[in-house]
Amino acid sequence: MKADMHLHTTYSDGILSPLNIVKFTRLTNHDVISVTDHDTMEGLEEVEHWAERFEIEMIPGVEISTYHAGREYHVLGYYLDWKDAELASLFNEMHLQRENRIRLILSKLVENYGIRIEFSDLRNFFKTNNYGRPHIALLLMKNGIVGSVREAFDKYLGDDGPCSAEKLQFATSEAVELIRRKGGLSVLAHPGIYFAHTDTEFKDILALGFDGIEVFHPMNDAGMTAALSEYAETRHLIVTGGSDYHGYLNEDIFSVNIDLKDRDLALMRSRSSRDPASR
Q1: Eight-class DSSP state of 157
Q2: Of 112, 153, 184, 229, which has the highest C-beta tally within 10 A?
Q3: Residue 163 in domain
Q4: DSSP 8-state symbol, 79
């Protein structure tokens, strides 16, 4: 069974609409997908509609930005209700903070480098209301200031860069607990971005109560994939995988080699149907 459990659309910082992401997955013979836009679930109703039309199983998802011990970690949440009022309130708060952060980054580009990008430029150029640094990077490319998204982050937009701005400090443990309380499943996204396979810190993160690990991801090298697979097996954690497709980064690989077994998907389905208190 071909699955991709980590996809992005125009509802966050991807370049494909829900319709086109579903079409793309149909053309590449995927059976199961999950759209996990950043800090929003607004696009899932559209994704569900088109997934049904194209006969693809859609698992509702979201990728939540969190912090633990001063470091950022992304938490994938699956099987959540996108109509839930508490989740909608949280993501709305994140949206407002994200917009303020983007405005601050734009002002720093002007102050530090004389590079002027208006917030209205973002609104006119992109089909989303959930703006992030990649949108600024794409406009920097469009204006000929940088040659790639990676260059934009390296020169201006990176976490330690000259135009960085603080993010909302939502705790990783809070995200894991919220997902659990809402009956969903929490998965640590792309550990290969945070750790090397010889590191032991990811065990401390997983001890926060994660249900699973994104074992298969373009940023997880062979050593990391093997280490995570073994760790998940010995601790009976859910194994997921995804391309993390956005559509613009040089390293974006849509059809990553995801060795996701039927048993992994069956385990997700069985655990998601339980009462949260029983897990």
Answers
A1: I
A2: 184
A3: no
A4: S
Contact 78, 185 (CB under 8 A): yes
The pTM assigned to this predicted structure is 0.84
Can you give the residue range of the structural domain that contains 149? 91-157
Picking from 210, 17, 183, 169, the residue whose alpha carbon sits closest to that of residue 87 is: 183
| Alpha carbon of residue 125 to chain centroid | 22
The helix/strand count (H/E) of the chain reads as: 11, 8
166 within a domain of the structure (yes/no): no
Distance CA 28, CA 125 (A): 28
Q: Assess if residue 164 is contained within a domain.
A: no
CB 188 within 8 A of CB 6: no
C-beta neighbour count of 9 within 10 angstroms: 29
Residue pLDDT, tens place only, 77-95: 999 999 999 999 999 999 8
Instruction: Count Cβ atoms below 10 Å from residue 222 Cβ, excluding itself.
Output: 8
> What is the model's pLDDT at position 5?
94
Q: Give me the number of domains the chain comprises.
A: 2
In this structure, the number of other CB atoms found within 10 A of the CB of residue 72 comes to: 14
